[in-house]
Amino acid sequence: MKNYRLSHLRCMAFILLVFCGFSFLHSFDAAGKVEFNIRFFDRRVYYVETDPILVQINITNNSPAPYRFKLADDRAFSIDFDIRTMSNRPVQQADSLIRKRTVNSQVFFREITIESGESFSFVEDLRNYVSFGQPGSFRVRAKVYPELFRSSTVAAIESNYLSLNLRPALIIGSDGIPMAMDVATGAVLVRQKLPPDEVVAYMLNARMETQWERFFLYLDPQAMLLRDPVQSRRFTAENEAGRQRMVSDYRRNMQNSVVDGDIVLIPASFEILKTEYNNYDATVVVLQRYRFNTYTELRHYTYTLEKRDNYWIIVNYHVQGMGTEANR
């Protein structure tokens, strides 16, 4: 009986060893066909000392077998960023990152399984990993540690490279308002104290010329976002970083015509019909024409503006169809 139990235990141990070995080889084979890419979560103008620089990490399993790795609750133990200047000098690590990795504490994690043909993504802020001390051009590469970060010698999967351009600290105008930058030209976009009708005309002309930085100069994406009660409640529940991401997502979705497709649709022409305003609020009614193959669609847009620090800002709009007219 004793020998039987011993043989049984040996048999179970052998089966377990084979299973573990198979799982290890399964994951090892998959690792060779894992695609690891990064991209900017919200591509825009970045400044040396201001908003988050969000990077989306995407891991895709192109193998026929599942791929497994450990993802730490504190992502600093699962991922790292190698950021270098154009002269190949590494950017200094953030003090907070150094403290995390030098303190002897337990690392909590969960095991992630990516099935064949599937992807797994998450977003990280570069400023949590490095300290940008000066503006310039940089090359960014990420590293994922499937078995968690223990030291710089641990095996890692490396990503593609991104090019990051950091501009000098945000320029503050004489009136205390930050100046926007034109991505295409690098020129400073300065808000002018325009009347409401000229603000709307500026926005529409910018859209007709596909100049997004000019389009958003007098338009508030956050106010647009908060018109939706569901999004408003979610916005209130988020922390500051989460709110910034929501606004950035909303702005990007506007550019992709995912939301507010009426305001981002490019008009062939427009005519301002009526403007009403007091010291705080304004409405501007515009007839906008949209040309198609055989006809032109007419729409009345009513824009709502608020006065903030002596500048009129677009915060809402409504659309009413006015029929069509044949093209000549």
Secondary-structure topology with pairs:
Layout: H1 2-31, E1 34-40, E2 46-47, E3 54-61, E4 67-72, E5 79-85, H2 95-102, E6 109-114, E7 119-125, E8 136-144, E9 157-167, E10 180-181, E11 188-189, H3 196-208, H4 212-215, H5 221-225, H6 229-237, H7 240-255, H8 261-264, E12 269-277, E13 281-291, E14 295-308, E15 311-326
Parallel strand pairs: 2-9
Antiparallel strand pairs: 1-3, 3-7, 4-6, 5-8, 8-9, 10-11, 12-13, 13-14, 14-15
Task: Describe this entry's structure for a reader.
With 328 residues, the protein is α+β, with helices and mostly antiparallel strands. It has two domains: 136 residues, Intracellular proteinase inhibitor BsuPI (Immunoglobulin-like, Sandwich), CATH 2.60.40; 147 residues, Nuclear Transport Factor 2, Chain: A, CATH 3.10.450. It has a four-stranded mixed sheet with strand order 2-9-8-5, with no helix packed on it. The longest helix is centred in the N-terminal third of the chain and has 30 residues.
Key terms:
alpha+beta; Nuclear Transport Factor 2, Chain: A; 36% strand; 8 helices; Immunoglobulin-like; 4-stranded antiparallel β-sheet; 328 residues; elongated
**What is the fold-level CATH name, i.e. the topology of the largest domain?**
Nuclear Transport Factor 2, Chain: A
**CATH class call of the largest domain:** Alpha Beta
The major beta sheet can be summarized as: 4 strands, mixed
Number of helices: 8
Secondary structure: helix percent:
25-40%
The gross shape turns out to be elongated
Whole-number average pLDDT? Answer: 83
